[in-house]
Here is the input.
Amino acid sequence: MIEGRILPWTEDLQDEGYPVWTDWEAGQRDVFFLDRDGVVDTTFNITPYDPGNPEDYTYIMNLILDLRNETWGQDTVTDIDGNVYETVQIGEQLWMKENLKVTHYNNGDEIPTGYSNSEWASLSTGAYTVYNDNEINADTYGYLYNWYAIDLETGVCPEGWHVPTDDEWTILSDYLGGSDIAGGKMKECTEGSCPESEYWFSPNMGATNESGFTGLPGGCRGGGSGSYLYLGGSGFFWSSTEYNSNLAWFWVPYYDTSVIYRDYDYKGYGSSVRCVRDETDTILVPYSSGWNIVGLPLDMEDASYSILFPESIEGTLYSFNGVYNLATIVTNGEGYWLRFNEEGSTTITGIPINELTISLNEDWNLISGISTSINVSDIQDPDGLIISGTVYGFALGGYSNAEILEPGKGYWVRANSSGSIILTSN
Here is the structure.
């Protein structure tokens, strides 16, 4: 909770998107931020020092939005096609509460579609379809995707989101009391008249939708026949986890039970997709006055050094590739020289990196680590590239042999030839 913090002036804003109200007093105002239960979560004390400054307005509204997302969870998420999905916080996970209906991978490529039954049954590449080839069904149930479409690195979920793993489905089920009752808590039903439903067959057993997941019976498209099956009776939801080279795990609720079942089937099946937001982590990176070797310990959308290290001296970020090069963007796995006027620290928030492959050139390299501290002795170096005793850190103006790679720090490493090493938290 932040109380009594002096912030720039902002105008009153009371629409539904911003859970904020303000009270005037002579020379200042209080801004109250609400949680979902209508309880005051945060109070700002704001002095009206520059009403006409757009930067002041942007600053305070971004702060309010950050607090809203932290307290309420992200309300919506938008895919590459511009489809907007409502979301729901369930335990520690933030889920889409609608089925995916994107038609492009995140790199802009179209996801193939329009296959006949026999063509669909023989696919081993990514594709999507709509139940009964009737586009109206997509409005309610989204599209059905084979597993090959969701397995590609290009991705189908919105930026910062992913197709849940089998473990993440298990976490959801366990949070809702276990698979015997979780299906009922996840199934859509008519508010005020549960378990009745406009979409599920009767009896829609155990349906309460108390989780807010709003699971729908979108059916599937058979992997062997290409036929459309089970609309109204069940919803098939892919996980991103393989069972073997031909099969993958999925989760399915049925109309006649409160159970959600975990099973595996052919990757050629067309099933619904729900996305879950990537987990984020926050790492505090200290630095000294003068020169430092820094790195990026998390995956971030904007990795500009001016954002990551706002107190650094402008124009002092240098990468090394045999020679020094002025840089503006920090890349995972690389080390950089960066200069500061005073010692301090910065807080970096992003997606954890648990494994990273780093390319080395022959002779000296600047590298950085992952999101957790790892022992130098645990670096995977199958080709024996690293020359023993040549991993050096830099602090307080001097070098020393490093035994641990710390998140956010950079290190010198000398290699006897070009190749790759692997850093892993395992």
Remarks:
- The chain is about 15% helix and 35% strand.
- Confidence is low (pLDDT under 50) at residues 1-29, 33-38, 46-51, 68-72.
- The CA atoms of residues 193 and 208 lie 9 Å apart.
- The longest strand covers residues 386-395.
